[in-house]
Amino acid sequence: MRRLKIFSLLLLLFPVCLNAQTVQQVTADGDTIEVVLPWPQNIQYRLDSLLQSSIFETSMVGMIVYDLTADSILYKVNERQALRPASTMKAITAITALDRLGGSHQFRTQLYYTGEVQDSTLYGDLYCVGGFDPAFNSDDMRAFAESVQQMGIDTIRGRIVADRTMKDGDLLGEGWCWDDDNPKISPLSLGRDINFLEHFVTALSDEGIGLDIRLSEGRLPSEARILCSRFHSMDQILQRMMKMSDNFYAEAMFYQIARSTGRRPAKAKDAAGVIKQLIQKVGNGKNPYRIADGSGLSLYNYVTPELEMRLLRYAYLNKNIYEHLLPSLPIAGWDGTLKTRMKGTFAEGNVKAKTGTVTGVSALAGYCTAANGHQLCFSMINQGIMKSDTGRNFQDRVCNALCEP
After folding, report:
1. Cα–Cα distance for residue pair 212/173, rounded to 1 Å
2. Residues 247, 248, 253, 256: what is their CA dihedral angle, to the nearest 10 degrees?
3. Is 70 exceeded by the pLDDT of residue 13?
4. Residues 6+ apart with CB under 8 A from 279
5. Using 50, 70 and 90 to split pLDDT, how confident is the model at 240?
6. For residues 288 and 91, what is the distance between their CA atoms, to the nearest angstrom?
7. How far is CA 315 from CA 6, 171, 311, in A?
8. Spatial CA neighbour of 108 closest among 264, 268, 226, 241
9. CA pair distance 247, 89, nearest whole angstrom
10. 156 and 117 in contact (C-beta within 8 Å)?
C-alpha cells in the first residue's frame, strides 16, 4: 500500500508543539497514511491505546488527568466511580491537614508534674500527655527522664500517669481487616509500642532516679506544671507518611485533623467531617463519599479519581500546601514506594505520586510534567485486580505516556 506523508497539511491545521505522535491510519481507499497528532491528542491517543489492554476484561480502572497549566481536563474514564483509594487516601489526609493545620504544625508529647520537691524527692505525680506524635523515639524518652533529673529530683513518690485523652480509646480503625499487621493507634506511644509508661520507668531508672510509684491512666489537671515538651514537625511526619506509606503516621495526621475541631476525645468522624468540608470547598460536596480513616487501610473508604484530582489541583494552587506536599511524595525511580518503578522511562525522576495497594486495588495519584512543560496532576485507581503488579504496570505505562515527547 502507498504511504502518504501529510505533515504539511497538518501543520496548517495544528500548531507545532514539542509533544507529537505519529500514528498510522488506513483511508477508505486502503492507503496507509501517517498522521501527526499534536498536543493533547497525542496523549489521549496513547491513553486510549493503553485502555485496550486485556486486563480490563476482568478488572476496571477509574482515571483522570488534569492539565494544570491549561486548567482543563486532559483525559478521563470512569472518573466518578466510587472506588477504594487504598493508600492514595494518605494524599487526601495530607492535603486536608496542610489546609487545616498549616505547614508549621507540630506533633507534641509533653511531660508535666504536680506536687512539690522536698529534699530531692518529688511528692507528686508525673503526667505523660500524648499528642499523637508517631515519631516520638528513644532520644525523646531520654529527654523526658533527663528533665526530671535536671530538677534535682532523685526520688519520686507518687504516680506516673498516662494521659491519652487526646483521642478516643479505639486502637484500630473502622473497617480494618483483623488479620492485617495493623498499628495500634494510641496518642501516647514510643514508636508503635503503646506501653509508654513502662519505657518511661526504665528511662528514669537509667538516670538513677528511685521510684516509689504506681502507674495509672488519667487526665492532666489544670494545676500541673510543664517539665518537658518534645515535638516533630509537619514535614518530618509527612516525609515518612507519604514516601514510605506509613499507616501509623497517617493515622496520627488524621487525628491531628480531628483534634482541630476542639472535640476531646477526638474521633475518626471528627476528622472525616473536616475532610468533607474541604471536599465541599473544592466543588465535589454533592457526590457521595465515605471517609473511614486517614491511611487507606479501611475497607469502608470510598472516593473517586475526580475527587483526588480536584484535591491535587487545590493543593497545586495553594503554595502553602503544595510546598510541603510535593517534597513528601515518592519520586519515580528514585525513592520511597516508587523507588523501583518507572526506571529507565521518561517518567523516572519526573512523576511524584502517592501509591496505594490493598487486596484487589492498586492506585496512583500525583503530579508530573509533560514534555511540552505543562504541569499535570492525575489519579488512577485499578479495582478488581488479582495481582497488584498488574495495576502497577498499567499505571507506570500511563505515567510514561504522560511524560513521553
Report:
1. 37
2. 150
3. no
4. 285, 289, 307, 311
5. very high
6. 19
7. 42, 31, 6
8. 226
9. 10
10. no
Judge residue 318's burial from the number of C-beta atoms within 10 Å of its C-beta, 0-12 exposed, 13-18 middle, 19 or more buried: middle
Here the cell at position 129 is: 500527655
List phi, psi (to 5°) of 298: -70, 140
What pLDDT does residue 29 have?
54
pLDDT digits (tens, 9 = 90+) for 50-106: 999 999 999 999 999 999 999 999 999 999 999 999 999 999 999 999 999 999 999
- The pLDDT, as a whole number, for residue 3 is 33
d(CA 197, CA 250): 24
In which band, very low, low, confident or very high, does the pLDDT at 33 lie, cut at 50, 70 and 90? Answer: low
Distance CA 154, CA 164 (A): 27
Rounded Cα gap, residues 303 and 81, in angstroms: 8
Instruction: Return contacts of 73-78, CB within 8 angstroms, 24+ apart.
Output: 74/40, 74/43, 74/44, 74/376, 75/40, 75/43, 75/44, 75/47, 76/305, 76/306, 77/51, 78/305
Q: Are 313 and 91 in contact (CB under 8 A)?
A: no
For the chain, the helix, strand and coil percentages under 3-state DSSP, each to the nearest 5: 35, 30, 40
Q: With H, G, I as helix, E, B as strand and everything else as coil, classify residue 385.
A: coil
- At 163 the three-state DSSP class reads strand
Cβ neighbours of residue 29 closer than 8 Å, sequence gap 6 or more: none
Quote the CA–CA distance of 387 and 362 in Å, as a whole number: 9
C-alpha cell read off for 196: 509508654
Per-residue cell: 285: 460536596
Q: What is the pLDDT of residues 335-375, one digit of tens each?
A: 999 999 999 999 999 999 999 999 999 999 999 999 999 99
> 377: part of which helix (H) or strand (E)?
strand 375-383
CB 166 within 8 A of CB 255: yes
